[in-house]
């Protein structure tokens, strides 16, 4: 079954949307609105499948549960003092870090009865393995205890997590998203979120138990490979892998008929973000 799904995804034309540089110039919330926009376009058959790369300036993306911690406002203030913009995602998951050394990729395609949620995760995992045949060890997928935003499809080498995969489905489209820590220290990023959770919970018992972060289990590709990689290196590996596997790639951008839809999605994402931030402030 997985082989059939892989063939279905590889053997097609993909719209290529590159926000790895331009994304540094706009609000990270726009990335979530863009993925929703593209999901709707693909879901209704108005667009081919899409792969979109994106990179943002230092930002902490919180999950809704993070904002409900008893001292969330103190945690958010700490993050802002550390130079991070703080936003709240419009889907599930816990806090993650974005910065210039984090490469994000969204694969957006039409939902298919044969394409289960696990199939989406498996396809992304397989893509990463194909992109890094020179990895210094097996690229595993399992929940890495002590990592931030832990999940069943944490990607790691030798027990060190360097990537996390999430998935969102809306209006007939599916977006499988991954962040890859490319440069800098994975442990230092983890320490920032470790301190956030310490300040936002202060050890009090809550309905939501925040992750007990152990910074040493987080890493970056530079650290794992023992050599310097850049965002451009990842872009090259991504595009050449797709081409090698038989996919057709056509560069694209937001189409005229997608602008209005994007504005509507962005308004919703912005409204949800503001409500979540305001609610966390009021409860503290």
Question: CATH topology, what is it called?
Answer: BirA Bifunctional Protein, domain 2
Q: What integer is the average pLDDT?
A: 93
Kindly report the name of the CATH homologous superfamily: Bira Bifunctional Protein, Domain 2
Radius of gyration: 18 Å
Tell me the helix content: 40-55%
Order of SSEs, N→C? Answer: HEHEEHHEEEHEEEEHHHEH
CATH class bucket: Alpha Beta
Strand content: 15-25%
Distance between the termini: 49 Å
Low-confidence stretches: none
State the domain count.
Answer: 1
Number of strands: 11
The oligomeric state is single chain
Helix count, DSSP H or I runs of 4 or more residues: 9
**Largest sheet, strands/sense/barrel:** 8 strands, mixed
Provide key terms for this protein:
284 residues, alpha/beta, BirA Bifunctional Protein, domain 2, eight-stranded mixed β-sheet, three-stranded mixed β-sheet, 9 helices, 11 strands, 41% helix, globular
């Amino acid at each position: 079954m997985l082989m059939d799904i892989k063939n279905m995804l590889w053997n097609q034309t993909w719209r290529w949307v590159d926000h790895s540089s331009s994304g540094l110039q706009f609000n990270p919330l726009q990335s979530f609105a863009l993925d929703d926009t593209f999901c709707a376009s693909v879901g209704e058959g108005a667009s081919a499948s899409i792969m979109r790369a994106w990179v943002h300036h230092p930002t902490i993306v919180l999950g809704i549960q993070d904002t409900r911690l008893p001292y969330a406002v103190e945690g958010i203030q700490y993050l802002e003092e550390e130079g991070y913009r703080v936003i709240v995602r419009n889907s599930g998951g816990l806090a993650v870090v974005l910065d210039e050394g984090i490469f994000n990729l969204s694969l957006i395609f039409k939902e298919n009865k044969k394409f289960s949620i696990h199939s989406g995760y498996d396809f992304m995992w397989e893509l990463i393995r194909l992109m890094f045949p020179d990895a210094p060890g097996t690229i595993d997928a399992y929940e890495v205890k002590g990592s931030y935003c832990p999940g069943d499809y944490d990607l790691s080498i030798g027990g060190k997590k360097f990537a996390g995969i999430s998935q969102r489905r809306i209006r007939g489209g599916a977006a499988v998203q991954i962040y890859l820590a490319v440069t800098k220290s994975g442990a230092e990023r983890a320490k920032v979120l470790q301190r956030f959770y310490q300040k936002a919970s202060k050890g009090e018992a809550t309905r939501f138990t925040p992750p007990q972060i152990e910074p040493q289990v987080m890493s970056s590709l530079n650290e794992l490979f023992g050599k310097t990689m850049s965002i451009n290196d990842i872009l090259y590996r991504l595009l050449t892998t797709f081409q090698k596997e038989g996919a057709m790639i056509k560069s694209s951008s937001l189409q005229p008929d997608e602008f209005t839809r994007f504005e509507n999605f962005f308004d919703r994402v912005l409204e949800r973000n503001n409500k979540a931030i305001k609610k966390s402030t009021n409860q503290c």
